[in-house]
Amino acid sequence: MFSEQACPTAQGLLGPPSTEPPTFPRVPVLGYSDCSGPFQLAERSFARQYAHVYSVRLAGMRPVLEQRARRRWGQDVLVRKLSEMQAGEKCCVVGTLFKAMQLQPSILQEISEEHNLVPQPPLPKYIQPSDELILEDELQRIKLEGAIDVQRLVTGTILAVYGSEQDDGRFVVEDHCLADLPPPLPWNGPSSDRFVLLASGLGLGSGSGEALLSTQLLVDVVTGQLGAEGEQSCAASISRVILAGNLLSQNTQGRDTINKAKYLTKKTQAASVEAVKMLDEILLQLCTSVPVDVMPGEFDPTNYTLPQQPLHRCMLPLASTYATLRLVTNPYQADLDGVRFLGTSGQNVSDIFKYSSMDDYLEILEWTLLAGHISPTAPDTLGCYPFYKSDPFILTECPQVYFCGNAPRFQSKLLQGAEGQRVLLVTVPDFSTTQTACLVNLRDLTCQPITFSSFGAEDED
Amino acid sequence: MADELYLENIDEFVTDQNRVVTYKWLSYTLGVHVNQAKQMLYDYVERKRKENSGAQLHVTYLVAGNLVQNGHVCHKIAVVREDKLEAMKSKLSTIASVHVYSIQKALLKDSSPLYNTDYDIVKTNLHNCSKFSAIHCDAAVPRMQPDIPRPQTSLQGSSQRENDTDAPSTATVNGHGPLAAKHPPQQHKGIMGMFAAKAASKPQDTNKETKAEAPGVSTASSKPPTKNNIINNFFGKAAMNKLKVNPVPEQPKEEKEVVKPSVAVAEPESSPHPAVEKPGKRTESSRIQQKDRKSKMKHVDRSDNEEERDPENAKKKRKRIKQLESDSSDEEDVPPSPTPEEEKALSPSPVAALKTELEPASMEVSAGGRKRKRKRVLKSKMFIDKEEGYMGKAG
C-alpha cells in the first residue's frame, strides 16, 4: 500500500539538495475513545475464590447460548439443567467445559511429598489422547462423549451440547455449538487511507544488536525520517501506533538475586532497568510524532494476572510528558478513527495453544472469537483476577480489528459473519525475532506486513 | 558558495574524523531537513567519485519496496551495502524509495556502527528529535506541568518571613553567611541556571529568600513537595511521594543531575513515620550537603509551621514531642539549637549558636521534639531580652 503511491518519487533523493524539502503533517486523529474500562481494576482484593469467575461467566453467556441452540436445533429444543435431565431424553445443556488432562501441571502434585515428584519441565503442548471432557453447570457435572473433539476444546469454554444422558451417567453428544460471533457494530471507518501500525515483542534488553537497528528503522519510518518523499507522505497517514506487549525481552526477567550469592549480586541492577530506559527513549522519539498506545505483555513490569494494568508512567519520564503517549491495559479495546479495535498481547492465544490441538495462532484467534470469550483458559491455566460481578472477557460486541501480539509469524484474515460482521484478524509477529510489524489500513480493513533488515557479518541475499 | 560548505563539512567528517556519517547524524549536526541531508550525502559521493575515482568511500543505501514473501506482499525496508544494492532492487517488485543511508571510510562488517551513530546523536537531541523530520505532528505537545506554581508559593512564603526578619537582619546575615556561601555552589550543580544566578546575585538580606528557594529548587523535587506538604498535609508522607513523581517529568535532563540529591532526600523522607518525619530524615541522611539543604527546608518549614500554627498546634507539638523524645537519639540534641524563628526573633543572640546552625540543623531533626522544646524556651528568653530585661515568660 505504501509502495504504489511512493513509486514516482522513489529515486528523488539521489541528487543534489533541493531548497525546500516538504514536511508532511501527521493525519489528525479523527476520533478516539478508550473502551478498556472493564479491564481496569480499581480495587484489587484477592480474598475471593475463583469459582465466582466461572459462575458469572456462565450466567453472562447462558442467554446467548440458549438463543444459538434454539436457532440451530429448533425452537422447541428442550434446554435443561443437568439436575433436571432425564436419562435417554434428547435435550440441550449449557455449561462450562472442563478438560481433565493428565499432563496439566498441578501445583498440588508438585509439592506433595508422597509423590516425590520433580517439577515437570514446561512442554510445548500438554494434550494427550487420554484427556476427558466434563461439562459443568451451576450445580452438577457430567462426562461428555461422542461427537465432540476433545483435543480441540479447552477448559473454561461455555458451550451448548445436544444429546442425551446414558444410564451409566455419561452424556453422549450428538452436536455442540459455541456462542458464535457477537452482534456487529455499525461501520464508522474513514473514507481515505489511514493506517495503524501494530507491533509487538520489541524485546529490549535482550543484548542482541541485530534487532536494535531494525527497531530504529521502524521508529524512523513512522516518524518520517526514513525513505524518499513518497514514502514519507505515506507514513504521515499512519494515525496511530499500538505496541502490543513484550516491550522488554525475556532476558530481563532473570533474577540473579535468587540463584547467585549475595556478594555477586549486591550492586547489580535488574536488567529491566536499563531496558526500560531504552524503551523510554524509543517511545519519546515515537511520541513526538505519532500517538502511541503501549500495552504491557508477559515480560513487562506490571502485574502478571490478566487483565494486565497499564505500565506506570513514572517508568517513562521522558515520554510520558507527551499527551500522545497512552499507557493502556492488556487486553485493550478502543475506537480508533471510528474502527473498533480489540487485542491482547498474546498470552491468551499462547495458553490455548498449549492446551489444545490447534496449532495455528490465527485459527486460535478465530476460535476465541467464535467462542465469544477472549481467554477461556483463565483462570485455570492462565492467571486472572478473581472477578465476581461480571466477566469482562466475554465478547459482547464484535470488534472490527481483532489482534493478538507476539505470534510466531504474521497472519491475517478477514472474517465475514452471518449477521454482517466484518472482522480483520491479525496475528502480530514478535518483532525481535521476525523484524516484522503490521500496517492495518482502516479504510478497507486490509493488513500489510513491514519487514526491516540490515546487513550482518554473514552475507545475506 | 554557501552550498559548497556542506561538501567540505562532510569531507571533514568522513576523511579527517573518520566518522560514520549517517543521514540522521548529518541532519542533526548541520541542522538541516533529513531529506536535504540525504541529498547532500549523495551529492558528496557523486562529486568525490568524479574527482577521484580511487576514493576510499563506502556507502550504504536504504531501499524500500514491495516484496512477495510467503504468499503475501510485504513492504520491505532494508539497509544494504552498495555492492548489494542492485541485487536488492531486483528482488523487490516495486521500489518505494532509495536513498543514501550513510558514508564511511571503512567497509562495515555489520550494521552496529550505524546504529550506534544514530543512537548517540538522538540521545543528545532527545528534546527535539522530530525537528528535522519530514512529518510534523500537531498533537504531540508536552503536557502542562502541574508543579510550575510551586516556586511561586515558596517565594511568597519567604517574602513573608523576610518582612518579619527585617530587624535582625544582621543576625541573619551572620547566621546565614556561611551557609549561603555553601549554597550557591550546590545550586549551580543541581538546579536550573536562573535560580542559581538569582541566588548568587541577590543581596544578603534576601539570603533568607534565596535559601528558601534554593533548597527548594536545588533539590527540585523535594523542596517544593516539602513546602506544599507542610502547608497542605502536615507530615503527609503519601503526599510527599506523590509530589516527588510530578517534578520528575518536568526536568528530564536535570533529573540526571538532581537524581542523586533527590534520591538521598527521597530515601530518608520516604522511610520514616509521618510524625517523626523530620527527625527521621536527619538521622538517616549521611551527607552534610543534604543535611544542609534539608536543614534549610526544615528551618523554613518549621518556621512556617510555628509561625502560622503556633497557637493551634502547640498542643499537637507537645504531644509529638513526647513521642519523639522516645525515638530520637541522644547525642544530637545537646547543644542549643537556634532556629529560623529564633534568628528572626532575636537580635544579638549568641552568634555561636547561630553559626552552629549546621549541627543544630541536623540535631533538630532527630530530636525534633526536644529541639522544639528548646526553641520555645529560648524564644521566651528572647522575649525577655527584647523587653529589655523584664522577666516575663511568654510560654
UniProtKB/TrEMBL annotation, chain A:
Annotated region (Disordered) at: 1-21
The residues covered by the DNA polymerase alpha/delta/epsilon subunit B domain are 196-410
Location comes to: Nucleus
Keywords, ordered alphabetically? DNA damage, DNA excision, DNA repair, DNA replication, Nucleus
Where primarily located?
A: nucleus
Q: Is this entry keyworded Nucleus? A: yes
Cellular component, GO, one term: delta DNA polymerase complex
User: Molecular function (GO) terms listed?
Assistant: DNA binding
Domain annotation DNA polymerase delta subunit OB-fold: ranges? 49-175
Q: Which biological process terms from the Gene Ontology are attached to this UniProt entry?
A: DNA repair; DNA strand elongation involved in DNA replication
Q: InterPro entries from the entry? A: DNA_pol_a/d/e_bsu, DNA_pol_D_N, DNA_pol_delta/II_ssu, PolD2_C
Q: Name one Pfam family in it.
A: DNA_pol_E_B
Q: Which domain of life is it from?
A: Eukaryota
Q: Which family does it belong to?
A: Belongs to the DNA polymerase delta/II small subunit family.
Protein known as = DNA polymerase delta subunit 2
What gene is this protein translated from? Pold2
UniProtKB/TrEMBL annotation, chain B:
Q: Where is the composition biased (Basic and acidic residues)?
A: 275-303, 382-395
- Name the predominant localization: cytoplasm
Give the GO cellular component terms, alphabetically: cytoplasm; delta DNA polymerase complex
Protein's GO biological process:
DNA strand elongation involved in DNA replication; DNA synthesis involved in UV-damage excision repair; nucleotide-excision repair, DNA gap filling
Instruction: Note down the stretches annotated as region Disordered.
Output: 144-186, 198-231, 247-395
Question: What spans are recorded as compositionally biased (Basic residues)?
Answer: 369-379
Stretches of Low complexity bias are at 260-269
- InterPro entries cross-referenced by the UniProt entry: POLD3 (IPR019038), POLD3_sf (IPR041913)
Start-end of Polar residues biased regions: 151-173, 218-231
Q: Where in the cell is it found?
A: Cytoplasm; Nucleus
* Keywords for the protein's UniProt record, in alphabetical order: Cytoplasm, DNA damage, DNA excision, DNA repair, DNA replication, Nucleus
Annotated GO molecular function terms are: DNA-directed DNA polymerase activity
Question: Matching PANTHER family, A to Z?
Answer: DNA POLYMERASE DELTA SUBUNIT 3 (PTHR17598)
Q: What is this protein called?
A: DNA polymerase delta subunit 3
What's the name of its gene? Answer: Pold3
